[in-house]
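Re: that backbone. Tokens:
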């Protein structure tokens, strides 16, 4: 159903970043993952099997663009819920910081911690990018829609936070 697992315990069948030759694209099986949420509980992509999910990757909790995006997803959550989607945000932040972010901004999303960036890398959401004209390595703001069978149906890479949630809703015909 889902692709190989990343981000799980060391004895899992993991894909490591050096093994990734192609970025996942629309029509591909989504890389499976298990990560810790803001409460420290393990959450897996397979927990949402048979349900569509929106997985978005963001650089850092409590920064302006990431706060905008998280607040926009939270505001739109009733419409996403009504259309059957669960929204999952993933960043390299530790669970404690995610919990603080959730409380501070009154977020109502599943936020997951990927401190070793294995899931970010598996989805092509970590690597070289341009930042103020310089090439740096970091999180590439990206969003994926994954259907109930684990197939990526939509992929957006290197997006701007402002207005992105509206574009996702428009693409999914959620109004």
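Recovered sequence:
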């Amino acid at each position: 159903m889902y692709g190989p697992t990343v981000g799980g315990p060391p004895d899992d069948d993991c894909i490591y970043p050096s093994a990734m030759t192609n970025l996942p694209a629309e029509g591909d099986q989504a890389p499976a993952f298990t990560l810790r949420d803001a409460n420290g509980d393990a959450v897996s992509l397979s927990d949402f099997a048979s349900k569509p999910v929106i997985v978005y990757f963001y650089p850092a909790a409590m920064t302006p663009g990431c706060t905008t995006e998280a607040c926009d997803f939270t505001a739109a959550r009733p419409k996403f819920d009504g259309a059957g989607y669960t929204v999952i945000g993933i960043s390299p932040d530790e669970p404690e910081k995610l919990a603080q972010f959730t409380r501070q901004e009154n977020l109502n999303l599943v936020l997951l911690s990927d401190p070793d960036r294995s899931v970010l890398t598996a989805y092509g959401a970590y690597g070289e990018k341009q930042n103020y004209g310089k090439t740096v390595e970091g999180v590439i703001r990206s969003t994926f829609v994954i259907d109930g069978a684990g197939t990526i149906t939509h992929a957006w890479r290197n997006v701007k936070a402002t207005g992105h949630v509206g574009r996702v809703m428009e693409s999914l015909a959620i109004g």
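Helices lie at 64-82, 95-105, 118-122, 164-171. The longest strand covers residues 32-37.
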